[in-house]
């Protein structure tokens, strides 16, 4: 079984939904599949604006609901003309949305549980349309709401998945169903133990896909988006960036954390333990290159990609009195930071956060009685790869290249053995990415480093048995891996 997830840009209009249909159709010829969909591109943003907009502004809001309705009805009319049942379902979902929006207008407030119901509407509209389009193409398909298969806590807006309860629900609802029909599951949505709808965080449909992949022990999860996989650097900034054929789970997780927007931050965790590969593929270039994300022993060591948070701020925090309360306050706040470098013994901490969070973090630290210096206008550029710390020449080469071109460093830290971050002035952001890409990602360097590292790892593996390479899990996963491995880019 495979799980195929299609993002908002892949289902943005009727033509694109038909492209999805042809991908799903050929995938379903190879075996059972579960489809996960996002809302039609842009719809969640509009719903967020409805939920968060001025509560007294009822008239214009009603107009927005009508626009959302018209868009979905016109897409449905194109992909599945005459599907009256799906049309009624859309009307009913929009009626519910209208009531919620009117309600928050009257009470002048939008409680988190209501906000979740509003912003979940996008997926509740897209899944029936995609299912209808598959049926119109001659396949058997049914929409399934995430509330039926994803169990979460009650933390609205960023709900955490309960893996055990979800596995139980998903297996019961989907395992038999896939034999006769393609379930089209709404991404992004779950329900707590009382059945109240929740959402997993913006971009959370990727997580729905990997959570279901793990629950159903899928042979792989495919994230279909609008680019050919995970790139060596943000292509918008670095002209020579290219898609990576292989990336380890850890690298993919670090990339999401440090600003590469391809995957939602929590996507990898559910499949990592089981060794289920994740493919990142392009809906608009289904035969083109793609990225395979899997276990670390299967990818060569070395620097593989660059990610960046363009607008960041450094918070230098100092505690005047040495009590545990200060450390406690900083520890809580650092969970919302990109990087937390601690020198707790001296009562000093350096935190790096996204610029958009910096002001509120500053205020919170301030009210905890800490002295804070905020340095805005910086960027965090992160080099990501496998077993980086075992290859100090990678960091050496990176720093040398930046130094030669006079890039001043505002900070330097390695948050894990898969990444090291340099903090630079925002004005040096683009140049730093280009310099590091030239220094580290040129194919001949990458290949040379990779083969040296591979020799190294294999030698160590021979010396001390199987400590460096987990051969048993390797064997267990070999078949599904070879099946899933993409052609080299
Ligand atoms: N529709 C949701 C969002 O835009 C979830 C997703 O697309 O993954 O955030
Ligand atoms: Mg996405």
Give structural notes.
- The protein has 18 helices and 16 strands.
- With 489 residues, the protein is of the alpha/beta class.
- A hairpin with a 2-residue loop joins β15 (409-416) and β16.
- α4 (84-107) runs antiparallel to α6.
- The relative contact order is 0.10.
- Residues 452-458 and 460-489 have low confidence and may be disordered.
- Residues 7, 203, 206 line the site of magnesium ion.
- Magnesium ion is lined by residues 7, 203, 206.
Pick out its properties.
VC0802-like; 8-stranded mixed β-sheet; 46% helix; alpha/beta; 16 strands; binds magnesium ion; Carbamate kinase; binds aspartic acid; single chain; 489 residues; 6-stranded antiparallel β-sheet; 18 helices
Summarize the topology:
Blueprint: E1 2-6, H1 14-30, E2 33-37, H2 43-52, H3 58-79, H4 84-107, H5 112-119, H6 121-136, E3 141-144, H7 146-149, H8 163-175, H9 177-180, E4 182-186, E5 189-191, E6 197-199, H10 205-215, E7 220-225, E8 246-248, H11 249-257, H12 269-272, E9 278-282, E10 291-294, E11 302-318, H13 324-334, E12 339-343, E13 348-354, H14 355-367, E14 371-386, H15 392-404, E15 409-416, E16 419-425, H16 429-440, H17 443-463, H18 471-484
Parallel strand pairs: 1-2, 1-7, 2-4, 3-4, 7-9, 8-10
Antiparallel strand pairs: 5-6, 9-10, 11-13, 11-14, 12-13, 14-16, 15-16
The protein binds aspartic acid and magnesium ion.
Magnesium ion (MG) is lined by residues 7, 203, 206.
Poorly predicted ranges: 452-458, 460-489
Number of domains: 3
Approximately how much beta-strand content do the residues carry? 15-25%
CATH topology of the largest domain: Carbamate kinase
Number of strands: 16
CATH architecture label name of the largest domain:
3-Layer(aba) Sandwich
What separation lies between the terminal Cα atoms? 25 Å
The overall pLDDT average reads: 88
């Amino acid at each position: 079984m495979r799980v195929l997830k299609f993002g908002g840009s892949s289902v943005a209009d009727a033509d694109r939904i038909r492209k999805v249909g042809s991908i799903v159709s050929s995938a379903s010829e190879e075996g059972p599949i579960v489809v996960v969909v996002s809302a039609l591109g842009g719809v969640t943003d509009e719903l967020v604006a409805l939920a968060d907009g001025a509560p007294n502004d009822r008239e214009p809001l009603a107009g927005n609901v009508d626009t959302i309705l018209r868009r979905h009805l016109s897409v449905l009319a194109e992909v599945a003309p005459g599907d009256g049942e799906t049309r009624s379902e859309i009307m009913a979902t929009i009626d519910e949305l209208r009531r919620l929006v009117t309600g928050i207008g009257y009470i002048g407030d939008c409680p988190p549980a209501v906000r979740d119901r509003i912003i979940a509407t996008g997926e509740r509209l897209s899944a029936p349309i995609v299912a209808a389009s598959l049926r119109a193409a001659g396949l058997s398909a049914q929409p399934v709401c995430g509330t039926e298969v994803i169990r979460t806590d009650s933390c609205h807006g960023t709900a955490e998945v309960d893996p055990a309860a979800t596995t139980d629900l998903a297996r019961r609802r989907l395992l038999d169903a896939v034999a006769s029909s393609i379930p089209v599951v709404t991404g992004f949505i779950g329900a707590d133990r009382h059945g109240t709808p929740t959402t997993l965080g913006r971009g959370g449909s990727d997580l729905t896909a990997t959570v279901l992949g793990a629950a159903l022990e899928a042979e792989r999860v495919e994230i279909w988006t609008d680019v050919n996989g995970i790139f060596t650097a943000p292509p918008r900034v670095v002209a020579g960036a290219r898609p990576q054929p292989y990336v380890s789970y850890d690298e993919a997780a670090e990339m999401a954390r440090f600003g590469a927007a391809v995957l939602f931050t929590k996507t990898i965790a559910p499949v990592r333990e089981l060794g289920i590969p994740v493919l990142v593929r392009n809906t608009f270039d289904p035969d083109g290159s793609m990225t395979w994300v899997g276990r670390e022993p299967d990818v060569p060591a070395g620097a593989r990609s660059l990610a960046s948070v363009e607008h960041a701020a450094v918070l230098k925090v100092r505690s005047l009195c040495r009590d545990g309360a200060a450390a406690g306050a900083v520890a809580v706040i650092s969970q919302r930071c990109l990087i937390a470098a601690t020198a707790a013994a001296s009562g000093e901490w350096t935190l790096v956060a996204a610029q958009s969070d910096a002001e509120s973090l500053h205020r919170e630290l301030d009210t905890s009685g800490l002295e804070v210096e905020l340095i805005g206008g910086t960027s965090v550029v992160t080099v990501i790869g496998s077993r980086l710390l075992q290859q100090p020449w990678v960091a050496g080469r990176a720093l040398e290249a930046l130094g030669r071109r006079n890039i001043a460093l505002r900070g330097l830290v390695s948050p894990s053995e898969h990444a090291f971050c340099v903090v630079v002035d925002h004005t040096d952001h683009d140049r730093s990415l280009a310099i590091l890409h030239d220094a580290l990602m040129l194919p001949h360097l990458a290949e040379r480093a990779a083969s040296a590292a591979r020799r190294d790892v294999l030698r160590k593996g021979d010396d001390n048995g199987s400590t460096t390479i987990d051969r048993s899990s390797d064997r267990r996963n070999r078949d599904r891996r070879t099946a899933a491995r993409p052609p080299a880019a």
